[in-house]
Write a structure and sequence with these properties.
- This protein has two domains: about 60 residues, Winged helix-like DNA-binding domain superfamily/Winged helix DNA-binding domain (Arc Repressor Mutant, subunit A), CATH 1.10.10.10; about 80 residues, Gyrase A, domain 2, CATH 3.30.1360.40.
- The chain has six helices and six strands, in the order αααββαββαββα.
- The strands form two sheets. A four-stranded antiparallel beta sheet has the order 3-4-6-5.
- Strand 3 and strand 4 form a beta hairpin.
- The longest helix is centred in the middle third of the chain and has 19 residues.
- The chain is elongated and about 55 Å long.
């Protein structure tokens, strides 16, 4: 597991087991278990994990992760949810040939979509490269490229885009 995945897993565990209302509290709790992070990184983690603030029943708020379970599978689920949202909101087309898949996005969104794809760590993906509105994905085989293309088309097809 990468340092980022370990940090995000620990964030999920901390939020699940203690009432945390502010980023400063979460940062302190992470530091207490040996994980040091910046406010910027913590903000990104909170967004990526889908952490929200909910009423605590005592007039205040606390962080909560949507969903009913916490564990290693949680990170995968959050990544899939983020990727699905990115694909549906920003991808306007997909095309490919041989080992290369090209994903077209709304201008300015290729980097975010590409990061979501990278976070999935799919074994069929060798690497990605993003510009302003285009992502190149190098796949391990033509079959892997076709499967990935079909999966992405299925996601963007849900929004009526092709």
């Amino acid at each position: 597991m990468s340092a980022k995945q370990e940090r995000q897993q620990k964030i999920l565990e901390l939020i699940a087991h203690q009432p945390i209302a502010r980023q400063e509290e979460l940062s302190t709790a992470l530091r207490d278990v040996g994980i040091s992070t910046t406010q910027s990184t913590l903000s990104k983690d909170i967004k990526e994990l889908g952490v929200v603030k909910v009423p605590d029943g005592e007039g205040g708020f606390r962080y909560q992760v949507p969903g009913a379970f916490i564990g290693a599978d949680r990170l995968v689920l959050q990544g899939e949810n983020l990727l699905r949202r990115e694909l549906q909101d920003f991808v306007v087309g997909v095309d490919g040939v041989d080992l290369m898949l090209v994903v077209k996005t709304i201008t300015g969104h290729a980097q975010g979509v590409c990061e979501s794809i990278d976070q999935m760590s799919w074994p069929e993906v060798v690497g990605t490269l993003a510009g302003e509105n285009t992502i190149f994905i190098l796949c391990r085989s033509p079959e892997a490229r076709m499967n990935l293309e079909r999966d992405i088309q299925g996601q963007i097809g849900n929004t009526g885009r092709t």
